[in-house]
Design brief:
Layout (H helix, E strand, L loop, with lengths): L1 H16 L2 E7 L4 E8 L2 H17 L6 E6 L6 E3 L12
Antiparallel strand pairs: 1-2, 1-3, 2-4
Length: 90
């Protein structure tokens, strides 16, 4: 009974807030990439090394990863579309 309740609450949160996504920000090229959706934080976290390796192999530099619940409007946002005032990319 308790497990079923937790499952229902978890699904409601997922519907309202959204699934987990890996937001990967690169300093060069100036892009934000979204990878997902994932059902859990740990699932998203486990997938990140592969995405980072792919971006590095394509020459991306200054990579920062944020895992969060969201519903991205676009999976890739580059150059003039990116507002950097909210991000510190190293």
């Amino acid at each position: 009974m308790v497990n079923r309740f937790k499952s229902v609450i978890s699904r409601i949160i997922q519907i309202v807030i959204g699934d987990y996504w890996a937001e990967i920000i690169s300093g060069h090229p100036h892009c934000i990439y979204y990878f997902g959706p994932f059902q859990t934080f740990l699932e998203a976290e486990a997938a990140c090394p592969g995405y980072i390796d792919d971006l590095k192999s394509e020459g991306a530099l200054g990579i920062k990863v944020v895992i969060k619940r969201c519903r991205p409007d676009a999976l890739t946002i580059c150059d003039e579309e990116v507002s950097y005032s909210n991000y510190s990319v190293e």
